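Look over both lines before class:
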Amino acid sequence: MNDRSKANVKLAGQYFGLTVWLIISLLPPVILLAAAFNETAMFRSPLALLTLRDFTLENFNVAFNTGDFWFYFRNSVIIAVASVIISVAVCVPMAYGLNKLRPRIRGALSFAVLAMRFLPHVVLALPLFLIFVDLGLSGSRTGLLFAHLAIHIPFAVWMMVGFFENVPKEMEEAAIVDGCGPWKLFWSISLPVVRPGLNALAILIFIMSWNEYLFALFLAGSDAQPLTVGITRFMGGVEAGAQYGVIAAYASLIVLPVIIFALLANRYIVTGMTAGAVKG
């Protein structure tokens, strides 16, 4: 076998591996969508669901009309958007300030900030609940928002420190020589350079907040629960059983905004991540 044949075989193997990976990745959401369009009482094997033999839209009707979809949707939007705005407003100046410290101190502080991410959410749920009870925030959207920020801010700071490290020092030094003050140096010189990373960060925080479940289950009261908790009302009890078709329809409605958002913002995510943010 010559070199060209070996290269073709290698390329074919890569395409085969990617095809298998793509099928495995797409299979769960495809089955979820197929279950949403089948009658709940006729819930069958995944292969049987894909035939759509008992096609129906009733599951979506039940999800919208008896599942208070828009109530939970509003809570999800408020919490996710507020998480993005506050995280960006807090973390960008904080990361910029950290980047101005000496490398050893910056590394130690960045690690200390990131260490918060090492803890599982379930470990933080009880302490946060006790704190929110004392502060009068238990069960509120504000309390749930603070819990999200406790997770997002360390990640956002660590990510933005990586972006600010890539701002050319020569550019900042030239701006200082031209009389640029600290605020103008941050706002007019460094911030435009890291804008791709800022876009990627905002998108990732929105998706993480939208998909968060554990804090919402532990900390949110009945007036503050997002979509990820709202879906559990169709799980039923031992006697009622789970309404699989309605759950699938509800789940499809939950992930649909994220999928559309991710597709529209895909260019910003790729640009931001390849700009050098994830460098530790």
